[in-house]
Every structure is written in structure tokens, then in C-alpha cells.
Design goal:
It is a single chain. The radius of gyration is 26 Å and the shape is elongated. Strand 3 and strand 4 form a beta hairpin. It folds into two domains: about 210 residues, Ankyrin repeat-containing domain (Serine Threonine Protein Phosphatase 5, Tetratricopeptide repeat), CATH 1.25.40; about 150 residues, Ankyrin repeat-containing domain (Serine Threonine Protein Phosphatase 5, Tetratricopeptide repeat). The protein has about 375 residues and is mostly helical. It has a three-stranded antiparallel β-sheet, with no helix packed on it. It has 19 helices and five strands.
Length: about 375
């Protein structure tokens, strides 16, 4: 069982976490991060042991969570005997004992000293059968721990598709935008993992997830889709009114993030969605073309020029100063902008197919023709 020592906010200098009754392999929790750590009892001395964590930075968004009296009294109490037995059964994998313990008085929605509920425990332990039992007995999906993370966010942060599917199918009114104070949501995490998570992204949006949400750095799901080269996810977000020309707090546009990552597929998709290839960052003056020049990616620069990006006088000077000859050549003799964006997308696909061909058969590999070379 996890027990917090006495804290005296606002004069907080650290929190002690007591680990008692640990047997075999068990789980403890990092007080500051809320993440589970699995350890063996052999590494823990007999009896009680205290683990001292450093105090959080007062400028950290989570600082208030550690100093609010309401938080201390809500999550600072030890579990009663029945709830502690249920928690122990979950951690030891005794799923069959859960219904019996619930009948004996254990709460299906207890919260331990850091706010974890039985459902959150089951998610963290990747115990899908236990999740089903708890949900069938009325486990709430909207309860959060001390870090404002509910079971859905925990499942998303662990990239657990199966757990997310169970939660999303069990409760149509599940709070899909719950997340920590840093602003991440299950949708932003799903978008960051690419088109392989398209099904989860669709489910989240269907249940009302906000496609325009942003974290404390201004990173939106559309930006994370651009960073992870997820054109289908970007299209889905666009259909839900996400802005392809959105910017983060540093002034970088969605297209700039895709250019920095060198993601040809999502760049062509963003151009199709009318992302501005001539955007200039108002905070540092960089353009999309200059971002490509600094990344030294000729394919990305060619794609932008074909997408009607305009060359500025300082672009060539930048490429020469950085000694990027391929970029200098493209800026000196730029390709003819493509009129039909669909042809541009076909060129990108052909480029990617050629790049994946086996190098052992040079006769089968040919440089893809650019749109300006077509009739």
C-alpha cells in the first residue's frame, strides 16, 4: 500500500512515499511523474522504506497540484482494508478475485494516495480482463489522478490500442479531452503516432475530441500529424475543421513542422489542403523555403517549389552560406510550378516507390520524372 507522509503546504520541500507490505514483484509510482515503476521485492529492504523525491520547480505547471490543500486531503489518505485488498489483487494479477472483493465491500472507484482508481490500475498493468470486470461493475471513466490523467489518457500514453478500444466502446460519454495541465490529450497522442492509429483517431473525433486543442507549446494534433508523416490523419483532422495553416507558440506553421521532418507525403497533403508555402514566421522571419534550406533536403525544396512557393532574394544567399550545392542549384534553376496538385502528389508517390526499390537491381530503379517533365 502507498502512503504519503505529512506535508505542510505551502512550505513544501519534498514528499516522502512509504512503500510497505511489498511482496514478490510489485509496482510503485513516481510521485512527480505519475508513472508506474515495476521492481522486485529483493531490491527493497525488509520493513518500511522511504523514498525521497525532490521538490518540483515552482515554475512548473504541476507545482500547484502539490501545494493545494484540497489535493492533499483528497489523495493523501491511505486506502481502507477492502480497497487495499482490491488494489493488491490487481497488482498481483488475481483477476478472478475482483468480483469477490467488490461483493465484500471494496469500492470500484476508490482513489489511492496519488488518485489512481482500480480502472487506472488495470490500464497501467495492461490487464484487459480486469478492465472489463471493473467497467461491468460501474467503474467510472471520467475520474482522474493527481496529474489530471484519466484511464483513457493513461492508455493512450502507453500506446495501448486494445485498452483504448475497450474504454471508447464501454462509455459513449467518456471524457475524450481529459489530460494533464501541459495540454496533451488522447487525440494529440494518437495523431503523433501516425496513420497506424487512424482508427483510434476516428473514434476520438466521433466522440467529440477537440481537433484544435493545443498543448502549452501550441502544438496541435495537426502539427503532430505533420511531424509523424500522417497524411490520412491530417485529412481527417482537416475534415473536422483543424487548420492546416495553424502555428505553434514559436510561430512555426504546420507546413514548417512537416518540412523540418522531411515528410514528403504529408507535405503534399498539406499543400493539397491549401497550406501556405509562402508563410513567414513573424517571430524570427524564417520562411518555409528557408526551413527546407536549413534542413538541406533537396526533395522537400523541389516539392515546395512545385507547390508554388516563391523564392526570396535572401534564400539563395542562405543556401550559399550554408554550402548546400544541391539547394543552390534548385534555387538558381527552379522547376516549373505544377498547376494540378494531384499530379504533384503522384510525383511524391513515385519518388517514394523508387526510393524503396532494392539497390541491388539498378536497372529497375529510375529517377522519377518530375511534373514539369510530363507532357
Amino acid at each position: 500500500m502507498l502512503i504519503f507522509d505529512r506535508m505542510n503546504p505551502p512550505h513544501y520541500h519534498g514528499a516522502s512515499l512509504k512503500l510497505s507490505g511489498m511482496t514478490n514483484q510489485t509496482s510503485s509510482y513516481n510521485f512527480l511523474s505519475g508513472r508506474r515503476v515495476t521492481m522486485s521485492s529483493r531490491s527493497i529492504a525488509s520493513g518500511d522504506r522511504f523514498i525521497r523525491h525532490p521538490a518540483p520547480n515552482v515554475n512548473d505547471p504541476l507545482y500547484d497540484a502539490f501545494t493545494k490543500t484540497e489535493w492533499m486531503y483528497r489523495f493523501g489518505k491511505p486506502l481502507n482494508r477492502a480497497d487495499a485488498a482490491l488494489q493488491k489483487a490487481l497488482r498481483e494479477g488475481r483477476t478472478k478475485d475482483i468480483p469477490h472483493l467488490l461483493r465484500k465491500g471494496a469500492s470500484v472507484n476508490y482513489q489511492d494516495p496519488i488518485g489512481n482508481t482500480p480502472l487506472i490500475e488495470a490500464v497501467l498493468l495492461d490487464n484487459l480482463p480486469a478492465m472489463g470486470i471493473l467497467l461491468a461493475h460501474g467503474a467510472r471513466t471520467d475520474m482522474m489522478d493527481a496529474f489530471q490523467e484519466g484511464p483513457l489518457f493513461k492508455a493512450a500514453s502507453q500506446r495501448n490500442k486494445a485498452a483504448m478500444n475497450i474504454l471508447l466502446s464501454a462509455d459513449d460519454s467518456i471524457a475524450v479531452d481529459q489530460g494533464p495541465e501541459t495540454g496533451e490529450t488522447p487525440l494529440s497522442l494518437a495523431a503523433s503516432w501516425g496513420d497506424q492509429w487512424l482508427g483510434i483517431t476516428q473514434q476520438l473525433l466521433a466522440r467529440g475530441a477537440n481537433p484544435k486543442s493545443a498543448n502549452i507549446l501550441g502544438i496541435t494534433p495537426m502539427i503532430t500529424a505533420a511531424q509523424s508523416n500522417a497524411p490520412q490523419t491530417a485529412q481527417l483532422l482537416y475534415e473536422k475543421d483543424a487548420d492546416p495553416n495553424g502555428t505553434d507558440r514559436a510561430g512555426q506553421s504546420v507546413l514548417m513542422h512537416a518540412v523540418k521532418a522531411g515528410n514528403l507525403e504529408v507535405i503534399s497533403k498539406l499543400l493539397q489542403l491549401k497550406a501556405d508555402p509562402n508563410y513567414r514566421n513573424p517571430k524570427n522571419g524564417d520562411t518555409v523555403i528557408q526551413t527546407a534550406i536549413m534542413a538541406d533536403n533537396p526533395d522537400v525544396l523541389r516539392l515546395l517549389l512545385l507547390g508554388k512557393a516563391k523564392i526570396q532574394p535572401e534564400d539563395l544567399d542562405l543556401a550559399q552560406r550554408l554550402e548546400h550545392p544541391a539547394m543552390v542549384e534548385l534555387l538558381t534553376t527552379p522547376p516549373v510550378p505544377e498547376q494540378e496538385i494531384s499530379t504533384l502528389i503522384d510525383w511524391v508517390k513515385n519518388k517514394l516507390i523508387c526510393s524503396k526499390m532494392p539497390a541491388s537491381d539498378p536497372s529497375s530503379v529510375s529517377e522519377p520524372s518530375t511534373p514539369e517533365q510530363k507532357e
